[in-house]
């Protein structure tokens, strides 16, 4: 794996997508997804200028973060259970996967105990997939005033994980829907939501064309993930 070449390729594709959309390259941030990647890989990416890292699991983040450069910022991008919120508030500079009012209330409570205010993104299940977490759009709109009233949270925008499709172009409607939902949320709140976290290794160019401000890229940067063998396998 040539990490430098992978990063250069991703950055070139990001610039080209921004050009097609009439956007400036600095309007999109790359988040490197470190799931199942060793600290050495994360540190190597940091040495190449990557500054934002995403983790899916609390346990993995707790073990990995102390072994990586201290200047990195870490986002929680996986499903978060309420009993892990205290650790998440301690470890991450943003939680992107807030998918219920109950979870948001727990984050606000734990953030207050830690004497901090935490930026969050609201995760939306844009396709209504039973296998995925995330707010149904209608419920998000209904609960948005209560979410916005939580004292220790700052709502910065929306996030989604769209359905897997064989062609990136087939995902475009879901990115477009999330962007439209963000506009509705902004109208309800009377304030801008600057962040749209959408797009991964296979579809981030389409996401950028549809307004993504943050893309979450793992495989295209680090290569295929290595999974520990199951016990007894």
What does this structure look like?
- The longest helix is centred in the N-terminal third of the chain and has 19 residues, at 3-21.
- Strand 3 (73-76), helix 4 (85-91) and strand 4 (94-98) form a beta-alpha-beta unit.
- Helices cover 41% and strands 17% of the residues.
- The chain has one domain: TIM Barrel.
- It is of the alpha/beta class and 233 residues long.
- Helix 4 (85-91) packs across helix 5 (101-113) and helix 6 runs parallel beside helix 7.
- It has 9 helices and 8 strands.
- The protein has helices spanning 3-21, 39-47, 58-64, 85-91, 101-113, 137-149, 172-189, 204-209, 219-222; strands at 29-33, 52-55, 73-76, 94-98, 118-124, 153-160, 195-197, 214-217.
- The chain has an 8-stranded parallel beta sheet.
The major pleated sheet works out as:
8 strands, parallel
Radius of gyration equals 17 Å
CATH class: Alpha Beta
Order of helices and strands: HEHEHEHEHEHEHEHEH
Q: Decide which structural class fits the backbone.
A: alpha/beta
Report the average pLDDT across residues. 95
CATH superfamily: Alanine racemase
Q: Give the tally of structural domains.
A: 1
Backbone shape = globular
Approximate helicity band:
40-55%
For the terminal residues, how far apart are their CA atoms? 27 Å
SS elements, strand count: 8
The CATH topology assignment is TIM Barrel
Give me the side-by-side strand order of the main sheet.
Answer: 7-6-5-4-3-2-1-8
**Count of discrete alpha- or pi-helical segments spanning 4 or more residues:** 9
Strand content: 15-25%
């Amino acid at each position: 794996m040539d990490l430098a070449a992978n990063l250069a390729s991703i950055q070139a594709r990001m610039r080209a997508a921004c050009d097609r959309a009439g956007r400036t390259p600095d309007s999109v941030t790359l988040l490197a997804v470190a799931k199942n990647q060793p600290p050495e890989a994360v540190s190597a990416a940091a040495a190449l200028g990557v500054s934002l890292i995403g983790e899916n699991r609390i346990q993995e983040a707790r073990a990995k973060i102390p072994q990586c450069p201290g200047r990195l910022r870490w986002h929680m991008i996986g499903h978060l259970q309420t009993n892990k919120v205290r650790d998440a508030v301690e470890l991450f500079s943003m939680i992107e996967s807030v998918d219920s009012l109950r979870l948001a209330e727990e984050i606000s409570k734990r953030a207050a105990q830690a004497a901090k205010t935490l930026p969050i993104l609201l995760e939306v299940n844009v396709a209504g997939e039973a296998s995925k977490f995330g707010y149904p759009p209608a419920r998000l709109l209904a609960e948005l005033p209560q979410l916005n009233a939580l004292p220790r949270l700052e709502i910065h925008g929306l996030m989604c994980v769209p359905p897997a499709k064989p062609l990136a172009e087939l995902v475009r409607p879901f990115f477009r829907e999330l962007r439209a939902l963000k506009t509705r949320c902004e109208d309800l709140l009377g304030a801008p939501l600057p962040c749209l976290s959408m797009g991964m290794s296979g579809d981030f160019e389409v996401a950028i064309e549809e307004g993504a401000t943050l893309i979450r890229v793992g495989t295209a940067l680090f290569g295929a993930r290595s999974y520990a063998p199951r016990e007894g396998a």
